[in-house]
Specification:
Elements: H1 7-19, H2 22-25, E1 27-38, E2 45-50, E3 55-60, H3 62-65, E4 77-87, E5 92-102, H4 110-121, E6 139-144, H5 149-161, E7 166-171, E8 178-185, H6 188-201, E9 204-207, E10 217-226, E11 229-242, H7 252-256, E12 264-270, E13 284-298, H8 304-310, H9 316-349, H10 357-377, H11 382-389, H12 393-398, H13 401-420, H14 427-441, H15 445-451, H16 454-473, E14 475-482, H17 489-500
Parallel strand pairs: 3-5, 6-7, 8-14
Antiparallel strand pairs: 1-2, 1-4, 2-3, 4-5, 9-13, 10-11, 10-13, 12-13
Helix pairs in contact: 4-13, 6-9, 8-9, 10-13, 13-16, 14-15, 14-16
């Protein structure tokens, strides 16, 4: 008989192979969010990342989700920073997100345009408001930094050539928007936490001949009864229950603790008042349980052999150095993204003027239409979706309001910056943008050209140049802090996988 492996070994092997693939461990993936869910208990985010040809299940743990400065929405185009591997138990290939940000022009553009139009309507740019320069000025206003070299140069030159003139300083930050960039310094504790996560991912479950305790995995058969009658959804066989995880309703896991493999017993619990099934809310039930096996997690030793097994390095020291370098790179990238998002937010905050509500409504219409189109591709329509979710069209549109306003404002602001700074898109810029879009969506560049007008691509290019201008001209103050490994990723990952079972 040929040699064989079981399913667990197969999934574990595939997971190990993928984790040793460096490109999969440092990814930036572009796609649209669908099926978005924030788990009610754990706070982890679950969603599918899609483009027109493929999709991938994605999870973002609570510790990372708390750092987001926007609320993810179905239909939102995002950049996800993370790694891809297999969820060992189910054999599902999925993306683990460490950070995420909206992709595209973003949010700060439309408000700047509104301000310009307001000032123009007030006649502030009219030629008749401009005054000719006097032959012999008595007062000169200087708009620059109070501490900059330009102010010192102006004073020196004027002092030599025309000392009788009065200088009036209007101090500003001439280099751009002030921003703080917080850079986390990776410490030994962070490296150790990451190594523990790697050990966790390479652990194995072993049967033990003792009473079950918290932290063990209990393989159980169970069936629930209410008033002596089995209820729907209350039965399972050989279910892997992690004791102490809070995966089952309160009181269940505590009554499994202390039992050994082979025992059959009853568990008496009461469903919570807020339980989703109406006929079970606040109701006492009895579960008949058989404990098939008690398993504990066996972690590999943290040594040179471990380094060889999980990486291309021969020593643990080399692996630690690589882990530290990778974590520091991730921290630096996140600091840069946070700083750029802060710059855009500042641009929006500093804008004045009213934006017509119709612009927001038009953007919401686009987002609703995109969502409806995706539903149709899945064999569902929007009316049916609203029926199943118990929502109304008004409430559904309201979910896009905040995101639409932000996108409109960003677009207006950056378009105006591009106009004022005379930023243009060259033919080379446009061609490169077509190539980038084609690569992101796995399409031929020529097909993309047929779908997206060159005028719109040129506008996107100039907007991106405006973003670069805002970033490059910013006055950035770096603040270095020591990163603290509050909760190890292994624990968060474990919680996320357990929470997924409740879905």
């Amino acid at each position: 008989m040929a040699n064989y492996i079981n399913v667990t070994s197969l999934n574990r092997l595939a997971k190990r192979v993928l984790e040793q693939c460096d490109p999969l461990n440092d990814l930036i993936v572009c796609g649209e969010i669908s099926g978005f869910t924030r788990h009610y208990k754990s706070g982890h985010l679950y969603f599918t990342l899609k483009d027109e040809n493929a999709s991938i299940k994605t999870v973002m743990f609570r510790s990372q989700a708390q750092l987001l400065n926007f609320e993810p929405q179905n239909g939102m185009l995002v950049l996800v920073y993370g790694r891809a591997t297999i969820y060992e138990r189910d054999g599902v290939f999925q993306l683990y997100a460490d950070y995420m940000k909206p992709f595209g022009a973003g949010a700060a553009q439309m408000a700047f345009d509104a301000l310009y139009k307001k000032l123009e309507a007030e006649g502030l740019f009219a030629p008749e408001r401009k005054r000719p320069l006097p032959a012999v000025p008595r007062c000169i206003g200087v708009v620059t930094s109070k501490t900059g070299a330009a102010w010192q140069d102006v004073q020196n030159v004027i002092g030599r050539r025309w000392p009788m003139v009065k200088l009036l300083l209007a101090p500003v930050s001439v280099q751009g928007i002030e921003a703080e960039k917080t850079i986390e310094t990776i410490m030994a504790a962070d490296v150790n936490a990451e190594l523990e996560r790697m050990r966790e991912r390479n652990s194995r479950m072993t049967n033990v001949e003792r009473a079950a305790k918290n932290g063990d995995t209990a393989l159980i058969n169970f069936e629930g009864f209410k008033d002596g009658v089995a209820f729907e959804g209350g039965k399972g066989e050989n279910f892997p229950l992690v004791l102490g995880s809070g995966q089952f309703i309160p009181g269940f896991e505590e009554q499994v603790v202390g039992h050994s493999a082979g025992e059959e017993f009853e568990v008496n619990v009461t469903f919570p008042e807020d339980y989703h099934a109406e006929d079970l809310k606040g109701q006492p039930v009895v579960f008949k349980v058989k404990l098939n096996a008690v398993q504990e997690k066996e972690l590999p030793a943290l040594d040179d052999e471990f380094a060889k097994d999980v990486s291309e390095f021969d020593t643990l020291a080399d692996l630690k150095k690589d882990v530290k370098d990778r974590l520091q790179k991730d921290a630096d990238n996140k600091a840069q993204v946070d700083m750029e998002n802060g710059l855009i937010a500042t641009v929006i905050e500093n804008m004045e003027g009213e934006i017509p509500q119709c612009m927001f409504e038009n953007k919401i219409n686009e987002m609703v239409n995109d969502f409806s189109y995706r539903l149709q591709s899945q064999g569902m329509n929007l009316d049916l979706y609203l029926h199943y979710t118990g929502s109304t069209m008004e409430a559904f549109r309201a979910t896009f309001q905040e995101s639409a306003e932000r996108q409109v404002k960003i677009r207006l602001a950056l378009e105006k910056i591009a106009e004022v700074e005379n930023l243009t898109a060259t033919p080379e810029d446009i061609e490169a943008e077509y190539e980038k879009i084609a690569k992101n969506y796995g399409l031929e560049a020529q097909k993309v050209k047929g779908l997206l007008p060159e005028k719109e691509i040129a506008k996107d290019v100039t907007v991106n140049k405006a973003i670069d201008l805002v970033r490059d001209s910013a006055v950035v103050t770096e603040k270095k802090v020591k990163k603290t490994a509050a909760k190890s990723k292994k624990k968060a990952e474990s919680e996320a996988e357990e929470a997924a079972d409740e879905e």
